[in-house]
């Protein structure tokens, strides 16, 4: 059975020390030696494999680790190109399956209205990627993307890019 949440099993200094702490799909351990090195988890799809997600940009391609409002997120998504080939997002302690029709509906973003206000304050009439907006606000990219999509589709104050501009947003010309 696929996991829908991650479960924190602690921190270790070395990768091999994580294995004995990981039992169920979604269990994770942080490997930290001075800086965060990796996020080791039992694959949430139930295949039983242990995944080591690199968090150290000095070594290779690295994911970003966020801990905001006591919730953990990883960016970008995890897409396994071997084994079970699952594709998922770790967002605010939830696991969002990329092929799922439900999408992110169960993910809770605390202070979402305030985040929308902050996003709107820094949007301009030029296209900006949600990742850049998130970086400027020091926020989780998944949270900022949700705020931008809401402001475009529900509030009608942002325009959402398509094609090559997917994931980009700008103020509607008659706003601001």
Would you mind describing this structure in some detail?
The protein contains three helices and eleven strands. Helix 2 crosses helix 3 (141-153). The strands form three sheets. It has a four-stranded mixed beta sheet with strand order 1-2-3-4, with no helix packed on it. A four-stranded antiparallel beta sheet has the order 5-6-7-8, covered by helices on one side. It has 176 residues and is of the alpha+beta class. The chain has helices at 112-122, 130-137, 141-153, and strands spanning 7-12, 27-33, 35-42, 50-54, 64-68, 71-79, 87-91, 94-97, 128-129, 158-160, 168-171. The protein is elongated, with a radius of gyration of 17 Å. The longest helix has 13 residues, at 141-153. It has two domains: 7-97; 112-171, Arc Repressor Mutant, subunit A.
